[in-house]
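Thread: Newbie trying to understand structure tokens

Hi all, I'm a second-year student working on a class project, and my supervisor (Dr. K.) asked me to get a predicted structure for one chain before our next meeting. I've only ever worked with sequences, so writing a 3D structure as a token string is new to me. If someone could post the tokens and maybe explain what I'm looking at, I'd be very grateful. Here's the chain:
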Amino acid sequence: MAGVLLISSMATGASALAEPPVRGGPSVGDARIGLRWLPCQGEEQRGFECADAHVPLDWAHPRGRSIELAVIRAKATDPGRRVGSLFFNPGGPGAAGSTRLPAVYERFPEEVRERFDIVSWDPRGVGESTAVRCFDTAEEAIAFEERVPPFPVGKKQRRTFVAAYEELGQRCERRFPALLRHISTADTARDLDVLRAAVGERRLRYWGISYGTFLGATYANLFPSRVDRMLLDGNIDPQAWVNGGRKREPRLSTSLRMGSDLGSAATLGQFLDLCGRASTRGCAFSAGSPGATRAKFDELMRRLKRRPVGEWTYARTVSAVRAELNLVHPAWADAAEQLQSLWEGRPPQEPTPPSDPPYPGFEQFYAVTCSENPNPRDPRRYVHLDELSARRAGDLGHWWAWADEPCATWPAKAANAYTGPWDRPTPRTVLVVNPTYDPATPYWSAQAMVRQLHDARLLTLDGYGHTALTNPSRCVNAYAVRYFLAGALPPVGARCAQDLPPFTTPSRATTEGAAVRP
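---
Reply by user tm_fold:
Sure, no problem. This is what the structure looks like when written as tokens:
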């Protein structure tokens, strides 16, 4: 499974075993959709309210066929002081708000939870909304994932990898010929505008992370006058995502244009250096110094290339480390334990898979990105990209080089993608936040976002992991509260620290993250 960003989409029970039939629904005119809120049914959604909305499949034909959007909210915990609604997008593409909002709700600042209804949704094509589901069952989808390596090593695996994803694209095209052409970011931004009106807001308050930053930038330029306060965390470079809007085929894939391989490599270097400075009680993989720990990692990779440890191949190990870099706590310590286990020749312990697994929904990522992201169309080109990325980013470069290869043979292109401009004036300044060592959306992507938007302010988190929301800082949260409640911006050049540095426990952590440092 590939993907640039937060791609662990947890799609379940979507109305999508085949192209859904045409059906009616509430009017899609601005502010005329009514949301009927009821208690959510999922065990993990206890205390949240859910609703369904109907929007046009094709915004160019608003009175044509409609599709469903699954919407979720957590009501303000201090209703007497409620300000209004704050929309949240958890990224992906392919991350479902109906599952991700309950998972990260406690990470929002307490005062934000007190004063705002936090609203999210499963974007079109995803989760409980009208979804792209190209397999009949979760078991069938999981079986596909299990037979395709995270990235190919050698000619035989390359043939398997390319053929499998070409088959996936054809399978999805047969089932969803219309939907695949109408799930672009621009389509979702138009849906968001309808949801904004449906909850009674004249202007949008929005907190987007990861891919949600690109969605926010798209909304801000499609509907600039309707932006109130917008926080973008873990940023995509808009121009890199759309290849500057150029019509010709790009030389680099989306992930390499963004430099995600370089961001991952830099973060892995920090992981190994900080591990090496810790004791083995703090980081199980420590070899006693940064240099020795880097050498130990390199030797482990060479071993795995020669022979796997159980089912842990070189590709699987690289893929697991890449994913675990996203979340400092607890994933960095978990990664160190896995690496040490492999070093000792033992397969890492793994959780027992659920007896009734949820539908994985990995194809929903490709359905969005491949429809609107320019990528090389010749699968053979990715062999050269693999060599390039491995030279500049080491082991993790292999994963990123192949992350976008499924788009080479993806059959559907968005009917209504947005490629710019990105600098339309908004009534208020957009707040852009990014960790300095973000392994998926590198810090320079946030700098690019600030340059490209008409009016944006950068708040730097001196820390690690993908997004500040999931790698928290009291300092960042304090700025977010002031921004959403009073419109106050951090000083130019403001920097924050994370609450809990890597390979430390809460009892050993400093209070540095609470400080606001201009």
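A couple of things are worth pointing out once you decode it. The CA atoms of residues 423 and 454 lie 4 Å apart. The beta strands are 38-39, 49-56, 66-74, 84-89, 116-122, 204-209, 227-233, 430-437, 456-464, 495-497. Feel free to ask follow-ups in this thread.
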